[in-house]
Design brief:
Elements lengths: L4 H13 L10 H11 L4 E4 L7 H10 L8 E5 L4 H10 L3 E4 L4 H34 L3 E6 L4 E4 L1 H7 L17 H16 L8 E8 L5 E12 L3 E9 L1 H13 L11 H18 L3 E8 L2 H8 L1 H16 L7 E7 L2 E7 L3 H17 L15 E8 L7 H17 L5 E5 L3 H11 L1
Parallel strand pairs: 1-2, 2-3, 12-13
Antiparallel strand pairs: 4-5, 4-8, 6-7, 7-8, 9-11, 9-12, 10-11
The chain binds guanosine-5'-triphosphate.
Length: 434
């Protein structure tokens, strides 16, 4: 922009020669209009103009959001320091003195365009990265070597229930369990001491404390980075849903579909665990085996679906007696149920078995053709053992089964118990006695 047409045409010619697309204006108003319309990469502004001068034009360019980013170079015969400083204060990027030396104009224009194109790419890149970080589904954390959180993205804040910037400055130990946090801190320290030798920490499943106190299960991928200082980029991936369905599947695999109490597989695992515990503690373990009396007859008389419903009722009654965390009731097969009472001696187990028997009888499930009772009944065998290294669970089952058959033969609807002692211990004792 210049009010002198000869200056304008000389400048235009020069710019066109350099390969720039050029627009000219002889007044501030016209220059503003063109600037808003074509959004040029650079504006050369004459300072002294009739009407709106160059400084005012520049002020207006800078006050308008669409034009404030366009670099302005002043051209003026007024080259006193205060004029030049005033030009820069208004927001110019350069100040060229008149009369113009065209080679100098070209050099200054080239420099400004170069700076602008570079800073634009940097800004664009930063903007792109910001958009990605703010919109990605994964939670992002930047952690410093001392375990302090430097930055979190919105997904991370959302997963963990925090406001924007609320996590910055906090320690990761506030989010993780102390052992896991210490493991990470040790890793950070190792990496900070020798960044070139340390390996990536990879991905692991962690339980993170939500702001509301609950726990969320997440995959945390940690990548070390050296950006003027050692930093750790954490990526959080929510696996709570995945975990829930995994847990549901696992639970389903432990439950008998008909009666909804533990299945045989679960019982065997449970027994194995309690057996080991009992060996360490020296406390007795009692196994109760129950079999529904004349159940074939029940099915034959009332039909298989009635048999199923009856098994469900019996299962619930039995399970209601497994009250302690060390007790477990399970359907072991067909119409056979088992209960484990850990840390329970023979007398207590007998009493428990007797109350289960009475409970089933009290359900008064009609069994029209039973020769034992008008109601459905169960026969129960109890075996108790203080297991030793050389014993196995099999022998406990055999003992309880035998007791159960004694109950069947003794007229059904009764409990029979056997104190097996420890078969292995008995064998050892027998050897010593010899
Ligand atoms: N309705 C139903 N019946 C089952 C199920 N599993 C096993 N049974 C039946 O349970 C019956 C078990 O019969 P038996 O082992 O001969 O013994 P019982 O008739 O109970 O007689 P005792 O044990 O001698 O008192 C069989 O007829 C099986 O078909 C089931 O899931 N549902």
């Amino acid at each position: 922009m210049d009010d002198a047409p000869e200056n304008l045409s000389a400048l235009r010619k020069l710019m066109v020669q350099q390969g720039y697309q050029t627009f000219v204006a002889t007044s501030g108003e016209r220059a503003l209009k063109i600037a808003r319309r074509v959004h040029p990469d650079l504006i050369l502004l004459d300072v002294m103009m009739p009407g709106m001068d160059g400084f005012e034009t520049c002020r207006q360019l800078k006050s308008h959001v669409a034009t404030q980013g366009i670099p302005v170079i002043f051209m003026s015969a007024r080259t006193e320091t205060e004029d030049v400083v005033a030009g820069f204060d208004i927001g110019a990027v350069d100040y060229i003195s008149k009369p113009l030396r065209m080679a100098e104009v070209c050099a200054r224009v080239r420099t400004q365009l170069h700076i602008r194109s570079k800073s634009e790419t940097q800004e664009e890149q930063a903007e792109r990265l910001r958009t990605i970080v703010n919109n990605m589904a994964e939670g992002l954390l930047i952690i410093e070597a001392d375990g302090r959180i430097q930055f979190t993205n919105p997904a991370c804040d959302k997963y963990l229930g925090y406001q924007e910037n609320e996590l910055a400055g906090r320690a990761i130990s506030e989010l993780l369990n102390p052992l896991v946090a210490q493991e990470y801190l040790d890793y950070f320290e190792r990496y900070a001491a020798a960044p070139e030798t340390a390996h990536s920490h990879g991905t692991r499943e962690v339980i993170i404390r939500h702001r509301n106190g609950s726990s969320v299960c997440m995959d945390l991928t940690l990548t070390p980075m050296y950006l003027r200082q050692p930093l750790f980029i954490g990526l959080l991936h929510d696996i709570t849903h995945h975990k829930q369905s995994e847990d549901a599947l696992q639970r389903a695999a432990m439950v008998d579909p008909l009666t909804k109490i533990a299945n045989r597989r679960h019982f065997d695992t449970f027994l194995e665990k309690e057996w080991q515990r009992s060996m360490r503690s020296g406390l007795p373990l009692s196994l109760v085996v129950l079999d529904v009396d004349h159940f074939k007859l029940y099915n034959d008389t009332l039909g298989h679906p009635a048999g199923d419903a009856c098994l469900q009722q019996v299962a619930q009654a039995i399970a209601s007696h497994a009250l302690r965390p060390t007790d477990l009731a399970a359907r072991y097969g067909g119409e056979e149920f088992v209960l484990l009472f850990a840390e329970t001696d023979g007398d207590s187990a007998y009493l428990l078995a007797e109350s289960i028997r009475a409970h089933v009888e009290s359900l008064q499930i009609p069994h029209p053709r039973s020769t034992t009772s008008a109601w459905l009944t169960v026969s129960i065998g109890v075996a108790t053992i203080k297991p030793h290294q050389l014993d196995n669970t099999e022998s406990l089952f055999v003992a309880a089964d035998r007791a159960m058959y004694v109950a069947k033969e003794g007229g059904r609807n009764q409990v029979q118990a056997t104190q097996t002692g420890s078969a292995a211990m008995e064998a050892v004792k027998a050897l010593v006695m010899r």
